[in-house]
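stage 2 :: seqdesign
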């Protein structure tokens, strides 16, 4: 049987905030499965770039010998033919926004890998329906185990409502309508550009600077209620190509004892996570008002959040990987 022996990590050359949670997953999977995290050296990167820039990745794939497998998290699926998508790599695709017409190029780019893991159940079913010629499995996203400990340390809530990330116009409209009807109500939102972001209230009062992931998590911990929208119906994300996967942000809010009001479709992803069991779905202002006023007075249900999040802890995902790989005659073994 083929062996998965390591996790290939981009942490040495991808310091972006969005990758931080990926590196946390890698460390937990490494400890749980007893396999090391490896980062490529600069020589490997230079070699790969030369093959890719000269359009001869097929020569690389022909020359590289069959070896031990590495798990490789890929932030966004694309159609580029890269050296890393080779016979010794099991890619884990986090975001997938490709259209049906792009699938032939996607299949061509990944045709050398022995198995693809996709985080979205909806994308998994989409690829199966479109006769993906590469072995493929669904392996859902997770919440790092340490985040569950936050539920045991309730934080003081300073802000009634905060919008995190790029504000979704759907919830902005609902919040503004509620604020018009309730002048004393204030909410916080994120404003500015990528180099200079800050949290301000809807009345223009500065709250704090957005300095990255730590300030983001601290703001969640200080917030009583927030909102969550899956990408495909988020008006601020027109490039999602209708896919509505459940993303880690909802886990991060729940793990910080933050009530969440949702706006999402019933689809394979939201059904798989049973999202409606913990995040009420609203379609109208009246729905929103009912949920908002309930959450302003109702204590956060820590027990329910812990039960939900425990099912999606990263260590649990690591154990699920055994069965997924075994079905493809792949074992897990340290180098």
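stage 2 :: out
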């Amino acid at each position: 049987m083929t062996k998965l022996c390591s996790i290939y990590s981009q942490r040495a050359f991808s310091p972006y905030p969005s990758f931080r949670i990926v590196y946390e997953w890698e460390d937990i999977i490494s400890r749980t499965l007893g396999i090391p995290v490896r980062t490529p050296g600069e020589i490997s990167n230079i070699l790969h770039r030369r093959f890719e820039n000269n359009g001869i990745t097929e020569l690389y794939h022909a020359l590289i010998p069959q070896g031990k497998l590495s798990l490789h998290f890929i932030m966004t699926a694309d159609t580029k033919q890269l050296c890393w998508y080779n016979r010794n790599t099991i890619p884990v695709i986090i975001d997938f926004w490709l259209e049906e017409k792009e699938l032939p190029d996607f299949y061509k780019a990944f045709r050398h890998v022995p198995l693809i893991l996709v985080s979205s159940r909806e994308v998994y079913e989409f690829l199966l329906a479109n006769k993906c010629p590469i072995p493929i499995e669904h392996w859902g996203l997770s919440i790092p185990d340490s985040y569950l400990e936050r539920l045991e340390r309730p934080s003081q809530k300073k802000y009634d409502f905060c919008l995190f990330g790029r504000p979704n116009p759907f919830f902005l409209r609902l919040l503004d309508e509620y604020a018009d009807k309730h002048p004393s109500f204030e909410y916080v939102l994120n404003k500015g550009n990528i180099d200079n972001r800050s949290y301000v209230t809807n009345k223009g009062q500065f709250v704090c600077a957005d300095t990255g992931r730590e300030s983001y998590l601290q703001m969640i911990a200080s917030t009583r209620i927030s909102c969550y929208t899956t990408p495909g119906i988020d008006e601020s994300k027109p490039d999602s190509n209708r896919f509505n996967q459940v993303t880690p942000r909802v886990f991060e809010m729940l793990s910080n004892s933050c009530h969440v009001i949702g706006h999402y479709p019933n689809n394979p992803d939201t059904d798989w996570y049973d999202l409606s069991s913990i995040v009420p779905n609203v379609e109208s202002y009246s729905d929103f008002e009912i949920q908002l006023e309930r959450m302003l007075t109702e204590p956060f249900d820590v027990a329910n959040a812990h039960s939900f999040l425990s099912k999606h802890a990263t260590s649990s995902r690591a154990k699920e990987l055994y069965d997924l790989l075994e079905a493809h005659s792949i074992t897990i073994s340290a180098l």
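stage 3 :: structure notes
- The CA atoms of residues 143 and 251 lie 6 Å apart.
- The longest helix spans residues 20-33.
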